[in-house]
Please model this.
Amino acid sequence: MEHSDWHDLIKKELPEGYYHKINRFLDDVYVKKTIYPPREKVFKAIQETSLEDVKVVILGQDPYHGPNQAQGLSFSVPKEIIAPPSLQNILKELKEDVGERRNHDLTSWAKQGVLLLNASLTVPEHEPNAHANSIWEPFTDAIIKLVNQKNRPVVFLLWGGFARKKKFLITNPMHLIIESAHPSPLSAYRGFFGSRPFSKTNTFLKAQHLPIIDWLN
Model:
């Protein structure tokens, strides 16, 4: 299901039998409707980024709900798909902050230790947030709690009201929380643009003698 160093630790954070509940949910919904991302990519965030390697967390709400967009990583889409508006704004802020990235598939970030986690891991086609508060929050909250318990500093990028509601899960004082408005076109001009999250993240990691993120790769 996920990277080997996540499995048993997540299981300890959840009520007994919760993994079975998730599998029943997936068996049910993928038969009834078109669901994104493809089932084999539901757990991609924790398949690509091990708990040991996490240096940054970027928290999204739920996957993109259009065809071929969602790939199991928050905000990321395959390079051959047009970047959705929020991702376009992330790349615009990135360009102003540290430089231009030409590829909007963010898998390379995940491979460097950026956990691209959505709070809900699935969504029905054209039904945003339809799976919110149905199955996923205990699972993804457990992931956040495990990252919070790391004894090495991590940067949490909380963009928008939904992500900022998860701030209560981040209690370890060694971590850095960077909050701003969401990159959505509805809110990006109210504090996301100009927030410089990418350079701030690397400044913090460098100060902690940790490898920085190559945001442009």
Remarks:
- The chain is about 35% helix and 10% strand.
